[in-house]
Design brief:
This protein has 286 residues and is an alpha+beta fold. 41% of the residues lie in helices and 17% in strands.
């Protein structure tokens, strides 16, 4: 496909992109695992690799937000990919170029699980000062994470019962989809990727969603370690955590209804167990 960088209408780019464009077709394009929302490629030059992401599907997020926030987080020592530039391709799709920081985690051992919790905590503990507040979006929770939930009456009814009691806040930077597929590793370093859903929101939900996914796809042992490491720095009452876990479970059910969840042989059994163990949820949900 040639060097895709040359055809981009750049809104922001650094000198590295200038050099990559100058290299022409010596920059090669390689396949990567694809997500639901965007096409992802690895670009390789003689000296380095980069991640080329194009939102050419239904989702059209504000890539400028990701670019500016990643710049700030990288400067503050948070383990994120460094952004090189953003703009629009020839078809007016949003594009973002970042550093290539590793591959998917092969084995989630206790050390990595603890580090994942500490990394999420570090993100949540960054204050939203004037610089970040000037561009970080804030959305109504249900409209964003449960758009058109009224189509699924049991889920919608459960949301109506939980949300007034949860006391949702918008006082933290949240990733919006923090799980193992959005973490890469290179040696001992873990890096958070895919900031499509980043926004100003409630850290308790961001954590609970991650915790629910661990309980579904990893193990209760790993999830307990993740929960303990995170709550050590960000205490929550048991009842408070149960309400936000309920929201995370409802989010998974909502995505399942829309065909957006991965299922293994025991996934449904695990989700049923989570529903039965949560006082906010009716077993008839699944």
């Amino acid at each position: 496909m040639g060097n895709p960088l040359a055809t981009v209408q750049w809104s922001a780019r650094n000198e590295e992109i200038e050099e990559l464009i100058h290299q022409g077709e010596s920059v090669t394009v390689h396949e990567m695992a694809q997500g639901f929302e965007a096409e992802v490629k690895e670009l390789r030059s003689a000296n380095a690799s980069f991640v080329w992401k194009v939102w050419n599907k239904q989702s059209k997020p504000r890539v400028d937000v990701q670019y500016h926030l990643l710049q700030i987080l990288a400067e503050r020592g948070i383990a994120v990919s460094r952004p090189l530039g953003w703009g629009k391709d020839a078809d007016c799709n949003p594009v973002l170029l970042t550093t290539f920081d590793g591959t998917s985690i092969r084995k989630a051992d206790p050390k990595k699980i603890t580090e994942l919790a500490k990394l999420l905590s570090a993100i949540h503990r960054i204050g939203i000062e004037t610089e970040i507040d000037s561009f970080l979006p804030s959305y109504e929770f249900k409209s964003y994470f449960f758009a058109e939930a009224e189509q699924y009456e049991p889920i919608d009814q459960a949301l109506h019962a939980i949300l007034p009691q949860a006391g949702l806040r918008r006082d933290a930077i949240i990733h919006g989809d923090y799980h193992l597929n959005n973490i890469v590793e290179n040696g001992e370093r873990l890096t958070v990727i895919d900031w499509t859903n980043v926004q100003r929101g409630d850290a308790r939900y961001d954590f609970a969603w991650s915790l629910v996914l661990m309980r579904i796809y990893l193990s209760e042992r790993n999830a307990a370690l993740f929960r303990s490491a995170y709550l050590e720095e960000n205490p929550m009452e048991r009842e408070e955590l149960e309400a936000f876990e309920a929201l995370g479970i409802l989010r998974w059910l909502f995505l399942m209804k829309r065909g957006g969840t991965f299922r293994k042989a025991d996934t449904i059994k695990r989700v049923k167990g989570l529903i039965q163990g949560n006082g906010w949820l009716d077993p008839s949900l699944l």
